[in-house]
Specification:
With about 70 residues, the protein is mostly helical. It has three helices and no strands.
């Protein structure tokens, strides 16, 4: 995923006056812990659909790379 794409999503979701990048730089351990807890709960509630989406993305990328290697 592109960093600018992620920045755009976070800028849309979070209030304008909140500088989330500065908070992550100043407090990296709590930021990682918060992301881990969020990922845990997201995985528990939507795990199978996330796994399906991730595996289909990986398969399509692999097929694309194989086709490029074969010159198709």
């Amino acid at each position: 995923m592109n960093d600018s794409f992620l920045d755009e999503i976070l800028d849309e979701l979070l209030p304008e006056e909140l500088d989330w990048a500065d908070l992550v730089r100043r407090y990296p351990v709590p930021a990682v812990l918060l992301a881990a807890v969020g990922g845990f709960f997201l995985g528990r509630s939507h795990g199978p659909s996330i796994l399906t989406a991730a595996s289909s993305y990986a398969a399509s990328e692999m097929a694309k790379n194989v086709n490029e290697l074969l010159g198709q």
